[in-house]
Design goal:
The complex is a heterotrimer of chains A (385), B (171) and C (161). Chain A has 385 residues and is of the alpha/beta class. Chain A has helices at 22-36, 54-57, 62-66, 86-99, 141-156, 160-174, 188-193, 221-227, 255-268, 273-276, 287-296, 305-310, 327-330, 335-350; strands at 4-11, 46-50, 77-80, 105-113, 117-118, 196-199, 201-202, 211-220, 232-241, 279-281, 365-372, 377-384. The longest helix of chain A has 16 residues, at 141-156. Classes of the chains: A alpha/beta (385), B mainly beta (171), C mainly beta (161).
């Protein structure tokens, strides 16, 4: 396998409802990514793109629809889709294109326009449940997260206030992100007292519905050396899917994240991730999920994560900053684009370009992770300089 | 200094932009319905539910007694032709108290919250849960680890569906 | 058996019918950055706009905000009035409705070539002899008060006599 570098990143602002069409959002993110490293579409050899369910954008075969906005006209183009995991899975997929030696440049573009879905994007998730053994119970998407969160809290004695602290910290980080859809700080009281959706999930525990796109340019080592003196290398990739019989595995531990992370760490030569990794961008559609994933990523001992969170271990100036971008809770959650945004963040952080959110101490190694499908998939990317 | 973080596009629209008619929108609904084949294993599961029984399949290799029943073990990847009845009781592995409908609309003032739970069924392999709902219980009384038992619909009303069990109640 | 018919027996046939209205959801689509401008012009001024990429020598209809080939942004200065006339690039006769029921008279759909783009639309005010590739056609707009800023603001295309 050849070495693969990230040399450019860009994204749209994340907004509740965008004027732009899905392909126009894709174009904006892809174009600014190319501009950021001084390349044109002619320099791009292939496209790896992703969007999560077609149902959100309301465009069946949305990948094909998006293709010209992603720069895919008349180029080898391939879409991946693993629900919420798509945003980082697409980066893994782009990595394959370059690592294999088949291409020297690959533009990765992920997009989501959830505002198209009515009455609410959540409604479209009904069909992810087993159509015969679960759907007749008229489930809704929140059920599975609430069930998982409750099991996780019960297992380790975590409280709702503990979980709320993630939303508070991530939203605070997100205020410094130029693409964030939020403008206000929240407190633990705000989160805990926000409308109860499905105990133990309150409204502010949940990331918002968003529209947006994010992109990255991946290149081979030879090209990277010519383009920049600050390439960010993809040191390791991993992914894994657990069984779709979600109720038959214990929900307190994300085994899929464990497997995916170990694969990526082995490739990156990382033996003690909690000591070696400088920045973590775990997937945080819900506050508890960030902590749950930190445990799966081997970045925090099981059951001790809340203590570390309270101690400031995961703050921007802590030992292992978590979601310095603000994450999905702090920037927004256009599903596929949100995962890619996390890798964009590692790119900017490791190059020292993250302005007000910059993690101090010249961080050199970061990990980003996304999660999706029926709570069963994780995709992990380790980047370093 | 030029902003190093590259952000372009993503023009936010307000609810007012939409309601004023200034922004051009097209609406469409697929208006489609689906129906599914039950498959071999789940068909038997539904037939037994109609009789008021819960049936599982057993993996000869990992010995798991699996619910919902399946023709093959997804861990060992071997066929599982052995059927075995399990009890209609179990323990609550986790639960939620849910105040929104499937489409994110809020439940009405007089509507009781939904009580979904994962129930580990007695007789199935440890940790083998199914998703169902709880009933005859006040939300604040529900505890993880609580013992529950199925409340069945009267035989004449059963249709061969997971909803032939109305809910699980504390026992 | 008509295309939409289907066996819907119960589980005795190993077939599950959910028994409730399956999925009452809908989608709403914004016209987009380009579409907003494109349809404003149709609605207010009965004009069809294209956007021209000088580098690729292509004029997109409907107008777009970028060239898909070179990725250049197509700015205000690249947007041009392409007129309301085009030619029939291809056509099809529809003998069934969307649900598969027969139509009394077949509907005619045309792909109208304007500059380097194609608009898919209905054909109206025509005779059989008009159904010919490369036949010149012209947009017939709805009355202004009935326009909403969408492709239906053009009622149909009709042959130029």
């Amino acid at each position: 396998m050849r070495k693969v570098a990230i040399v450019g990143a860009g994204m749209t602002k994340f907004v509740r409802r965008a004027l732009e069409t899905p392909k126009e959002l894709s174009y904006e993110a892809a174009k600014i990514t190319l501009d950021s490293c001084g390349l044109t579409l002619e320099d791009v050899e292939c496209i790896a793109h992703g969007t999560a369910p077609d149902a959100f954008d309301g465009l069946h075969q949305n990948g094909e629809y998006m293709v010209d906005g992603c720069g895919g006209w008349n180029k080898p183009t391939m879409r991946v889709y693993v629900g919420g995991g798509t945003g980082i899975h697409a980066v893994v997929h782009g990595w394959h294109h370059v690592a294999s030696g088949l291409f020297d440049t690959c533009l990765v573009v992920c997009e989501e326009k959830m505002s198209s879905a009515l009455p609410h994007a959540q409604a479209f998730f009904l069909t992810i449940f087993d159509s015969i053994t679960e759907r007749p119970l008229e489930p809704n998407l929140l059920w599975i997260f609430a069930l998982e969160m409750n099991r996780y809290m019960e297992r380790y004695g975590y409280t709702k206030e503990d979980m709320a602290l993630v939303a508070v910290k991530n939203k605070l980080n997100g205020l410094k992100h130029p693409a964030s859809q939020f403008t206000e700080e929240v407190t633990v009281e705000d989160v805990v007292n926000s409308e109860m959706m499905a105990y133990p999930v309150s409204r502010l525990d949940v990331s918002p519905v968003s529209d947006g796109a994010a992109a990255l340019l991946l290149v081979s080592e030879r090209v990277a050396r010519r383009l920049t003196d600050k390439p960010v290398w993809i040191e390791g990739v991993g992914w894994s899917l657990d069984t779709a019989y979600w109720a038959t595995r214990d929900l307190y531990y994300p085994r899929y994240t464990d497997t995916a992370a170990r694969m990526a760490y082995e490739m990156a030569g990382i033996r003690e991730p909690d000591k070696e990794i400088h920045i973590a961008e775990p997937y945080d559609p819900f506050g508890y999920k960030a902590l749950h994933h930190m445990e799966g990523l081997q970045l925090s001992p099981r059951g001790k994560t809340v203590q570390l969170l309270h101690d400031g271990h995961f703050d921007i100036d802590g030992n292992l900053p978590m979601c310095p971008s603000g994450g999905l809770l702090g920037v927004g959650n256009p599903i596929a684009a949100a995962g890619t945004m996390k890798v964009c963040e590692l790119f900017w952080q490791l190059r020292g370009e993250a302005d007000g959110r910059q993690v101090p101490g010249n961080p050199r190694l970061g990990v980003a992770q996304s999660w999706g499908d029926l709570m069963q998939v994780s995709s992990v990317v380790v980047t370093g300089i | 200094m030029e902003d190093k973080i590259k952000v372009a596009g993503g023009t936010g629209l307000s609810a007012q932009d939409i309601s004023s008619g200034k922004i051009f929108l097209t609406e469409d609904s697929l208006d489609c319905t689906y129906a599914w084949d039950t498959g071999v294993a789940v068909n038997r599961y539904l037939e037994e539910l109609k009789k008021g029984k819960i049936i599982a399949t057993r993996c000869r290799k990992c010995k798991r007694i699996m619910l919902p029943p399946r023709l093959f073990c997804e861990l060992c990847f071997i066929p599982c032709p052995d059927w075995q009845y399990v009890q209609d009781s179990g323990i609550v592995n986790t639960y939620s108290i849910c105040y929104v409908h499937w489409d994110a609309s809020r439940i009405g003032k007089d509507e009781k919250p939904h009580l979904p739970a994962v129930i580990e069924i007695d007789g199935a392999a440890p940790g083998m849960g199914i998703m169902h709902i709880l009933g005859e219980v006040e939300p604040q009384e529900i505890k993880i680890g609580m013992r529950v038992k199925a409340v069945w619909k009267p035989e004449a009303e059963r249709s061969g569906s997971i909803t032939d069990i109305k809910y699980f109640k504390p026992c | 058996m008509a295309i939409m018919e289907r066996n819907s027996r119960n589980i005795d046939n190993r077939y599950w019918n959910p028994g409730f209205k399956a999925f009452p959801v809908k989608n709403v689509y914004t016209a987009g950055a380009a579409g907003q401008r494109f349809f404003e012009e149709i609605k207010n001024n009965s004009k069809i706009l294209g956007s021209r990429c000088e580098k690729c020598e292509l004029t997109y209809v409907p107008a777009r905000i970028y060239c898909e080939r070179c990725f250049n942004r197509l700015e205000e200065k690249n947007w041009i009035d392409v007129g309301t006339e085009g030619t029939i690039y291809s056509y099809t006769l529809l003998f069934q409705t969307q649900n598969g029921e027969p139509r009394e008279n077949p509907a005619v759909m045309v792909a109208v070539r304007i500059a380097d783009g194609l608009l898919i639309h209905r054909l109206g005010e025509f005779s059989a002899a008009d159904l010919e590739i490369d036949k010149p056609v012209k947009a017939k707009f709805k009355p202004k008060e009935k326009r909403k800023g969408c492709i239906e603001d053009i009622d149909y295309f009709k042959p130029i006599k």
